Amino acid sequence: MAVVAETLGTREQVKFRERVFYSTMAFAILITVFVGFSRTFYLRPYFFPERLIPLLILHGTIFSSWIALFVTQTMLVATRNTRIHMKLGVAGLVIAPLMLLVGTYTALVRAKGPSPLPDVNPLAFLTIPLGDMLIFGILFGAAYYYRKKLDTHKRLMLLASIGLLPAGVARWPINFIATGGPLVFYGLADLFIVPCLIFDIITRGKPHRATVIGGALIVASHPLRLIIGGTHAWIAFATWLTHWF
Length: 245
What we know:
The chain is mostly helical. The protein contains twelve helices and no strands. The chain has one domain. It has helices at 2-42, 54-78, 82-110, 122-125, 127-145, 150-162, 165-169, 176-179, 182-190, 193-204, 209-229, 232-242. The longest helix is centred in the first third of the chain and has 41 residues, at 2-42. The chain is globular.
């Protein structure tokens, strides 16, 4: 009986640590996104007189819905409301595809205008938002595929949300151009992967495979996008692609 009680106690401690970890990460992501987009979206009327075009409002609303859903789902698990969590998961199957469609369309439309970064070809910059959509789609798809393997599922869902953070971090009130450009805000966003690895080591003794593979995919994609964006082949492809929008 003592062994059983000790085992149950250990399991409860592990679950408690998981609830604290995932809740903390969810709110850290929420704060990061809000700080990044507060001036240009959430609190825009206080900083800019001109209104956003409908496409950007739609884009911001859908992506904000994902963050809100992610935080809500995390808190439902933390409070042991797993039945509601599973039912609400259907919303993710609606929001995620909308994010991919609207996010891709917005990126292609905006690529025909000025680049967000000075002295950077907007067609070359296109690899950044399209890369975000590709990585998010892969991680979300993998999370859905492994939805019955909870350890894998929740790690992939967390990483899918982390993969969206560079856009928010890039809008922090920091002069990233002077401090090193995209690799700097990519690096800051990638720091969110470090607690995931530490949590795995503390609770499992080693990193979970989903954390390693998903984290590596996110990190490796960042310099790869910059390299691809600077090639003549990409510029030619992007020119053809944006011609249809």
